[in-house]
């Protein structure tokens, strides 16, 4: 068979088109774009910093499951069509945790605690939120978060982050000023129940007319006996919660803060002035807890962009990044639980 | 009885419309899981309704396919190429149904609400089960890659017919007037 030039050119066209298509897919999928910040690279930094702990969340790894309900008082109903804000009860599955990727971290090792909640609305919608007990986030962008995590990577020699690298990171990131001022005076609390948990990222409430209002929300504790954690006990938080729940349910008020015109809506590193208008939308009641390796919170991804009708995400770039990174972390840990081929095997809590 | 020389006009319309949609879905899917930027949320918001639209169109297309015979392949086509063509076409049909079902099923198993657009919510098609979620989520990924590779091979084969063999096979799927020679299969 003789191959004429025209023939060869046609074959080249076909092969070339196939190659270009594959290369384009490889670029879009990130394999041929090694410098793009992907969810995988972001989540890898947690494993780099804290080690691989199969089955656990890659961040906020240590925690407990809780459950209860939200008692809406109707006060936020004028601002959002979400059924959770109507008068009445919405069941809640939640989780308290410590930030960081180490499931065995000592409770006193960080001055921050977190609360994650999934509200199951009567109309079938869901509201998921992950809140931290701090008023601002250190950084504004996923790239800066990644750099911060890299700077905080423990030095293999000391097992602790290199202070010089951290100092260099903070010097290069002036947006961290509000967080640094806050964290200087923050102390690890003795209880999950006495903490105020902030959404930090802003969202929009959408009313029946479709009007949007920028808000941040917080769970403000009714318990007033806050104090510093006891020394020498690495696991006091779960014990404290158990003791409190044995006496009675723990309560928080859901406080919604409305932005004034000009307030930064897409920057988690900048707090709003404290005189902004607030509305208390109801009471969160937590009356049960379970260990996180068997409780219902284990299999929930508290992706903050899972929102019911009546609540919408803001343009804060951290929200999309959280959604992408939590999905990757969730897939890793559920694949480990499911013993998927290639996934690391989880170690039972009791035999670690 | 004569077999048709071209695909049914509706089959051709569906073929090209869905080719565009499915290729777009492959790139949207691969792109959205490879970025932490706002594109992740924006693309996911397109991915879900577009995927469900593909599911509905694929069902309609399969029904049409079972009612209308496709034109037969040229008689001189080697047997292995006939087999490859038949197998890959059914694989493409299977994947264009399986991927949206897996997407819908894995979100159901993960306990996520399946929301299309701003307000439309689909019911869960599987019970909440995180282990099932993990299997389906990985299947969604690897079958999407299989669909991509099958598409590249299928496109190359189509161009081979159109540019190298010039046997009318590509034309039978194109909206043009050129027709394959009628094939008489029996008296
Ligand atoms: C780009 C920035 C961020 C990244 C990459 C990130 C990453 C992660 C990851 C991977 C998890 C584990 C998810 C899972 O496996 O289910 C997690 C949990 C969590 N994050 Fe973030 N996070 C970010 C920002 C924030 C912010 C701004 C807040 C503040 C409100 C926050 C609060 C939480 C909470 C409360 C949890 C625990 C949820 C639970 O108990 O399941 N995160 N984060
Ligand atoms: C023809 C139909 C579809 C195609 C070709 C397709 C393709 C893809 C691809 C290539 C990915 C990336 C996989 C990876 O590399 O991990 C993906 C992810 C995903 N797809 Fe689909 N998909 C389809 C339909 C659907 C449908 C109908 C849904 C839901 C209703 C869906 C939901 C998702 C979700 C949730 C992800 C993962 C997002 C994340 O982990 O952040 N897909 N899809
Ligand atoms: C993802 C994209 C695509 C999908 C899912 C797809 C799917 C299919 C399927 C299922 C068939 C079989 C029809 C039947 O027998 O009922 C078919 C036929 C065909 N496709 Fe595609 N196609 C795609 C893209 C393309 C492209 C880019 C070309 C261009 C070269 C092409 C050219 C053809 C031709 C020429 C036929 C007719 C084959 C024959 O006569 O047996 N397709 N396609």
TrEMBL record, chain A:
Keywords from the UniProt entry: Heme, Iron, Membrane, Metal-binding, Oxidoreductase, Peroxidase, Transmembrane, Transmembrane helix
CDD domains registered for this protein in UniProt: srpA_like (cd08153)
Enzyme Commission number(s) from the entry: 1.11.1.-
Record keyword Magnesium present: no
Regions that span the bilayer: 12-33
Cofactors required: heme
Name of a matching Pfam family: Catalase
Domain Catalase core: 38-352
InterPro entries for the chain: Catalase (IPR018028), Catalase_core (IPR011614), Catalase_sf (IPR020835), Catalase_SrpA-type_pred (IPR024168)
SMART domains per the UniProt record, alphabetical: Catalase
Domain of life of the source: Bacteria
GO molecular function: peroxidase activity
Known function: Has an organic peroxide-dependent peroxidase activity.
Family: Belongs to the catalase family.
PANTHER family xref list: CATALASE (PTHR11465)
Protein name, as recorded: Catalase-related peroxidase
Species assigned in the record: Frateuria flava
UniProtKB/TrEMBL annotation, chain B:
Compartment(s) where it occurs, according to its Swiss-Prot or TrEMBL record: Cell membrane
Keyword Metal-binding: yes
Gene3D superfamilies (alphabetical): Transmembrane di-heme cytochromes, Chain C
Entry keywords, A to Z: Cell membrane, Electron transport, Heme, Iron, Membrane, Metal-binding, Transmembrane, Transmembrane helix, Transport
SUPFAM superfamilies according to UniProt: Transmembrane di-heme cytochromes
Cofactors (names): heme b
One matching Pfam family: Ni_hydr_CYTB
InterPro entries attached to this UniProt entry: Cyt_b561_bac/Ni-Hgenase, Cytochrome_b561_oxidase, Di-haem_cyt_TM
Membrane-topology annotation of the record: Multi-pass membrane protein
Keyword Transmembrane helix: yes
Domain Cytochrome b561 bacterial/Ni-hydrogenase: start-end pairs: 7-175
Membrane-traversing stretches: 12-34, 46-64, 90-115, 142-163
Family (UniProt): Belongs to the cytochrome b561 family.
Protein name (database record): Cytochrome b
Organism, as annotated: Frateuria flava
């Amino acid at each position: 068979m003789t191959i004429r030039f025209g023939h060869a050119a046609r074959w080249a066209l076909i092969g070339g088109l196939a190659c270009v298509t594959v290369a384009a897919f490889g670029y879009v999928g990130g394999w041929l774009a090694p410098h793009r910040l992907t969810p995988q690279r972001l989540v890898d930094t947690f494993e780099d910093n804290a080690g691989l702990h199969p089955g656990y969340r890659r961040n906020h790894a240590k925690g407990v499951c809780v459950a209860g309900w939200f008692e809406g008082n109707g006060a936020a109903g004028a601002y959002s069509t979400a059924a959770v804000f109507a008068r009445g009860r919405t069941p809640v599955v939640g989780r308290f945790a410590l930030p960081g990727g180490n499931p065995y971290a000592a409770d006193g090792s960080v001055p921050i605690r977190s609360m994650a909640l999934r509200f199951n609305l009567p109309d079938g919608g869901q509201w998921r939120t992950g809140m931290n007990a701090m008023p601002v986030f250190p950084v504004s962008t996923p790239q800066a978060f990644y750099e911060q995590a890299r700077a905080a990577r423990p030095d293999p020699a000391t097992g602790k982050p290199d202070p010089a690298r951290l100092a260099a990171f903070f010097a290069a990131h002036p947006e961290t000023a509000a967080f640094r001022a806050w964290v200087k005076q923050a102390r690890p609390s003795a209880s999950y129940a006495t903490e105020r948990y902030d959404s930090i990222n802003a969202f929009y409430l959408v009313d029946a007319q479709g009007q949007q209002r920028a808000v941040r929300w917080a769970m403000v504790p009714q318990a007033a006996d806050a104090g510093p954690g006891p020394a020498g006990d690495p696991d006091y938080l779960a014990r404290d919660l158990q003791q409190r729940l044995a006496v009675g349910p723990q309560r928080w008020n859901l406080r919604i803060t409305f932005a004034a015109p000009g307030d930064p809506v897409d920057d988690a590193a900048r707090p709003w002035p404290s005189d902004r208008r607030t509305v208390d939308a109801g009471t969160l009641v937590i009356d049960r807890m379970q260990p996180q390796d068997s409780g219902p919170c284990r299999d929930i991804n508290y992706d903050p962009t899972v929102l019911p009708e009546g609540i919408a995400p803001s343009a804060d770039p951290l929200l999309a990044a959280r959604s992408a990174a939590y999905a990757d972390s969730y897939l890793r840990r559920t694949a480990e639980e499911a013993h998927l081929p290639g996934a690391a095997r989880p170690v039972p809590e009791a035999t670690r | 009885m004569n077999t048709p020389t071209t695909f049914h006009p509706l089959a051709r319309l569906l073929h090209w419309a869905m080719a565009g949609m499915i290729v777009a879905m492959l790139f949207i899917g691969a792109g959205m899981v490879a970025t932490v930027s706002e594109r992740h949320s924006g693309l996911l918001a397109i991915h879900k309704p577009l995927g469900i639209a593909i599911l509905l169109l694929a069902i309609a297309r399969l029904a049409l396919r079972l009612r209308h015979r496709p034109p037969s392949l040229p008689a001189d086509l080697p047997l292995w190429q006939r087999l490859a063509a038949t197998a890959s076409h059914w694989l493409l049909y299977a994947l264009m149904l399986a991927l949206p079902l897996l997407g819908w099923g894995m979100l159901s198993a993960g306990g996520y609400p399946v929301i299309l657009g701003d307000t439309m919510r689909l019911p869960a098609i599987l019970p909440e089960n995180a282990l099932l979620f993990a299997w389906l989520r990985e299947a969604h990924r690897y079958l999407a890659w299989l669909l991509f590779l099958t598409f590249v091979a299928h496109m190359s084969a189509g161009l081979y017919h159109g540019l190298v063999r010039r046997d009318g096979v590509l034309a039978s799927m194109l909206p043009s007037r050129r027709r394959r020679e009628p094939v008489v299969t029996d008296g």
